[in-house]
Amino acid sequence: MIKLLADENFPNASIDQLNSAGLDTLSILKLYPSISDKDVILLANREGRLILTFDRDFGHLIFKEGIVPENGVLYFRLQNFKSTTPARLVIEILNNKQLDFERSIIVIEENFIRQTRF
Where in the sequence is the domain holding 37, given as residue range(s)? Predict the structure, then answer.
């Protein structure tokens, strides 16, 4: 089963919904507030977790600095959404058998999903 790590900016309502759906989801905001994005990646790698974030800085860390989240990143670029919308999208994406999360960043917009391998 995929384990998830929600960055500080990921809505608490979505984290609660993911945990209620039986997905092992940790919250950076609740457990490790203010840690660096690099430390988020290191924690995700140590615990084998897929990162959930709204923070575009992860792209810089991955492609410019070579700091690789082994289990991947779901990067959300949504505007004007309900706090539970990201959880619904995560569940849909996890059920998509065509996506391989390892060593990938998956960009999620309102009507578009793009996967880039690294």
Answer: 3-117
